[in-house]
TrEMBL record:
Keywords: Membrane, Transmembrane, Transmembrane helix
Entry annotated with the keyword Transmembrane: yes
Membrane-spanning segments: 46-66, 78-100, 109-133, 139-157
Protein name as it appears in the record: Uncharacterized protein
Lineage, broadest ranks: Bacteria, Bacillati, Actinomycetota, Actinomycetes, Micrococcales
Amino acid sequence: MTTSSNAEPVRTTTDADSLGVLGLQDVTPADAKEPAASRDGRADRIFTAAALLAGGFLTGAIATFLHRARFDAGFGPVWLGIVASLLVITLLAVGIRLYLRERIYVTSFAAGVIVAVVALAMLTFGHSAIILADLVSTIWAAGAPLLVSLIAAWPRLPERRERYSEHQSTISKEAQS
């Protein structure tokens, strides 16, 4: 202990003391049931999956409302809404699948899209339907859930380095023969 100018004892803390006060002290494996890193990783995964579920629902709801957008080109209606909606849903799902690699994330996104399409396909209390009983709406109601489900179920592709090393080993085996 040291004294300050007011003659009051001032306690100096060590790094270990300050870490203990903050709850950041090292935990020995015998004391911990699971490492803090895995708990943090699990929380991140749950949060990311929940965010993608909400994002899938929002994307599916917006695309459901916009799937019937069209314009008259003189020779008949051009249905850009269905094409754009299916393209957006597909590209987002493929992007999530390729970027995040784990299937849980794209499955969460797919579940959000499917829930949005199914919820908006039902008749409401006033008997108004957002998804009508015509060809364009049928393509949307069946196509969007089918596309995101297929993307979510697609098997995991090996890493590029793994494919390259397999290719190199095949070439070297052929060269040895």
